Amino acid sequence: MDAQRIHRESIIIDAHCDTLLSLMDRPWPGYVKRDFFTRGDRGHIDLPRLKEGGVTCQVMAVYIEPQYKPVRSARRAMEMLDTFYSLVDESEDFTLATCARDIEEAKAAGKTCALLSIEGGEAVEGSLALLRGFYRLGVRAMGLTWNQRNDIADGVGEKSAGSGLTDFGVSLVKEMERIGMLVDVSHLSDSSFWAVAKVAERPFIASHSNCRALASHPRNLTDEQIEAIAKKGGVIGVVYCPAFVDDSPENVSLKRLCDHIDHIKSVAGIDHVGLGSDFDGFGSPLGGPDAAKVVLKDVSELPKLTEELASRGYTEEEIRKVLGGNWLRVYREVLG
Ligand SMILES: [Zn+2]
Q1: Cα separation of 192 and 204, whole Å?
Q2: Cα radius of gyration (the chain)
Q3: Average per-residue pLDDT in the chain?
Q4: Residue 57 forms beta bridges with which residues?
Q5: Contact 189, 173 (CB under 8 A)
Q6: Which residue, of 115, 134, 191, 253, has the greatest Cβ tally within 10 A?
Q7: Separation of CA 8 and ligand 1 centre (Å)
Q8: pTM score over 0.70
Q9: What mean pLDDT is predicted for residues 127-146?
């Protein structure tokens, strides 16, 4: 099997990165703002490395840092969207995708595109009008919480309350489904996960989560949660953050990440697994990996993942689904 050909020809979608944060002004000591259009060796993603890695569509998270919560969350989200749009304005080669067809067109034209997602529902500041406003600005997915509790649900860091969705959270999920925005359950507490699974009528996603059966971190999904996502037609993006790949840092590797892909395939079937790297969302403040063992050094190494799946006996059709076909199916169904 020619893994490199499959990689080159496939539509490749990565459902989560925090690269926008590295392009913003931030107060960290030692922090250096990066240039998206120059190939660097800091961090994991810039446009030249996305192209080397063969990525067609990179989902870019608008991540609201704790110091902007709860007030100023919408303002911070707007600042990050402004940074994103300045990238799109600067390059003909980098475009916004808001639906499956935009991604197919980018692939056909040899361009790289990005789909916008909000990470942390604080951004809508309790207002469905703001949610619709962000939709109009191109946002097509939202993680309801980060690790904390908010006015929508409990994040995974909230260990005591055991709450589901608030009344506002229920109306938010319904409105997201109505307007065509993907509900992302990565970072939710278990109890809030199950509340979403109960309320959701459309496919929902876990953009960047692995399997708790293989790595016990609470950010990972139990087999029952994986089944619940699959039952609604959703997809789980496997995440490269070392702590979610294996309990022991020594065991973190590309092969170990692919064990998670194998596991989701065995629990839910090949139609429900994709990529959700979390690139530029872990590592040191400078963006480099701080673990000795990593899944991939950066996005430019992504073809190695295709080679690993091929060596495990995945068929071409299965590899294409994992690389992006499954995300494309969900986007077509939910975003139109
Ligand atoms: Zn995250």
Answers
A1: 13
A2: 18
A3: 95
A4: 13, 113
A5: no
A6: 115
A7: 28
A8: yes
A9: 98
Confidence of residue 32 (pLDDT cuts 50, 70, 90): confident
Q: Can you say whether residue 152 is alpha, beta or left, with left for phi > 0 and alpha for psi between -120 and 50 degrees?
A: alpha
Scan for tokens 């139109």, then name that residue.
336
Please name every residue paired with 221 in a beta bridge, in sequence order, or none if there are none: 211
Output the CA 206–ligand 1 centroid distance in Å: 10
DSSP state for residue 321 in the 8-state scheme: I
**Distance of CA 109 from the midpoint of ligand 1 (Å):** 30
Tracing tokens 């911070």 back to the chain, one arrives at 76
Record the tokens describing residue 193, joined without a space.
């996960």
Are 241 and 280 a contacting pair, CB within 8 Å?
Answer: no
Distance 146 CA to ligand 1 centre (A): 7
Q: Looking at the predicted structure, is the pLDDT value of residue 255 above 70? A: yes
Distance, in Å, from the CA atom of 221 to the CA atom of 183, rounded to the nearest integer, reads 16
CATH number, domain 3-334: 3.20.20.140
Calculate how far, in angstroms, residue 295's C-alpha sits from the geometric centre of ligand 1.
Answer: 17
Longest dimension (CA), the chain: 53
Residues 6+ apart with CB under 8 A from 241: 208, 278, 281, 282
Burial track 67-87 (b if 16+ CB lie within 10 A, e otherwise): ebbeeebbebbebbbebbeeb
Domain definitions of the chain by residue range: 3-334
Nearest partner of 142 among 222, 224, 240, 73, judged by Cα: 73
Using omega within 30 degrees of 0 as the cis cutoff, is the peptide bond preceding 70 cis? yes
Strands (E), the chain: 13-17, 57-63, 94-96, 112-119, 139-143, 182-184, 236-238, 273-275
Instruction: For residues 273 and 277, give the distance between their C-alpha atoms in angstroms, rounded to a whole number.
Output: 12
Q: Are strands 94-96 and 57-63 parallel, antiparallel or unpaired?
A: unpaired
Q: Say whether pLDDT at 160 is over 80.
A: yes
Using one digit for the tens of pLDDT, what is the confidence trace for 258-307?
Answer: 999 999 999 999 999 999 999 999 985 545 555 678 999 999 999 999 99
